[in-house]
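[stage:ingest] chain + small molecule (S-adenosylmethionine)
[stage:ingest] validated
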Amino acid sequence: MAFKPKITVVSHHQNDVAETVAASIQPTELTKKQKRQLKNQNRKRILECVPKGGVCIEIGVWRGNFSRQILDIVNPLHLALIDPWQHFEDGDKTEAFSGRTQEQRFEDIYTEVCQKMSAEIERGQVSIMREMSDTALAQFEDQSIDFAYIDGDHSYEGVCADLANLFPKMKDEGIIAFDDYHRFGWWGDGVLRAIHEFIGRHPTQCRILMVEGAQIALSKLPPHTEAQA
Ligand SMILES: C[S@@+](CC[C@H](N)C(=O)[O-])C[C@H]1O[C@@H](n2cnc3c(N)ncnc32)[C@H](O)[C@@H]1O
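[stage:predict] done
[stage:export] tokens:
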């Protein structure tokens, strides 16, 4: 008689697989709401490992939903929210009209985030950097950031650039976490490849702290001395 495995994973979305195999639910049974809840749980587990009261940044903020979670769980000394909230033309002929509509949409979302964070901005706990991550990161001192969440440009080139620009700005023992650590979005294997290559190029300078569904967190290791070897 042929051997039949007990569990068959039918979806290949990593976020679903990790969570649903444990819960013995078929991934296809998850609703959008359940997927969102799982993602929130995974991100919460990462945030619970971040030391309280440090300097944090979020690259890619959108409506500021995760920014609120960072504030609630980590209670940072300071949180910089980095996002251009800008529509980029893609050369489509309809852009002349839809581009303007999109521009207004981004403007509205930016205003909404500023309003949602107004109390924290007022007391100096939150700053909003309405710009691309490369120019924003250039304004930080080296060794100044305790926690960074990267969720901006998901292309291979975008994640490589964010990591290269961010790494020197991180304190030793600082934590860098990423969303969408999987291959099933428009970015293909870009996020995975950029992270894995970075670890490969810095084999003694960072370590994988945790993977929770489609979230991954790295920690920056202090310089390795001969005495430790
Ligand atoms: C997936 S959304 C972020 C969602 C948010 N982190 C959350 O969990 O609620 C991606 C955001 O990245 C922003 N973005 C894209 N490229 C960026 C870049 N180079 N620097 C900063 N933000 C960028 C987009 O404007 C968009 O708001």
